[in-house]
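Hey team,

Filing this mostly as a record. A colleague (T.K.) asked me to run one chain through the structure pipeline before their review meeting, and I want the input and output archived in the tracker in case anyone asks later how it was produced. No errors, nothing strange. Just documentation.

Input sequence:
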Amino acid sequence: MKLFDRVYAYIWGKAFYDSSNCYIIQDDECVLIDPGTFKSYTNLFGLMKNDGIERVDFVFNTHLHRDHCESNVMFTRKGALLGFDEKDRQISQFTFSSDIKLGKVFVVGNTEIEVVRTPGHSPGSLTFFLQDYGVAITGDLIFEGGVPGRFDIYGSDRKDLIKSLERIRELEAEYILPGHRRIMKGRDGIDALLERGIEFLSIY
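Output structure:
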């Protein structure tokens, strides 16, 4: 669905909770963030086509867990360039090669994407921040109700996750676009959710 003028969100319900949500920035070129699993690919492709999106130029991953990146190949085989944090190669079951070294900012057309390092759920987790819209695409950093991402799996780190949540608070986002479940909106509400997540991790 079209969320903003150049931003699209594909939010999965219960049938696809084992696949990540997918987000697209469509400007002069098209950036797709977290294409998800093979299971959801056909649905994703159909929804994109309904929105008039038929070409993807770049695929970025918030992190390299299977549910976020398995379908990378469905787009890279058609010519899309892949970008992720190389630190996540150590925790991934895939042997992807990054075509783009992501710095602090990536610009597509007139849209500036800030690349924020937010480790914790994985060593190379990234958040993509669109200042023009107040949108933070956070992967598995935090979910509805202030539930933080898992920190009990290989490559995760609770202390890093706390620091990353604090970093996202500083962005003062109006929208959090998470890796799973519903979008969160409203700066005050988001700040409260981030605070709740930090408190939970601090006393765990």
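Quick notes for T.K.: The mean pLDDT is 95. The helical segments are 38-50, 66-69, 72-76, 158-171, 187-203.
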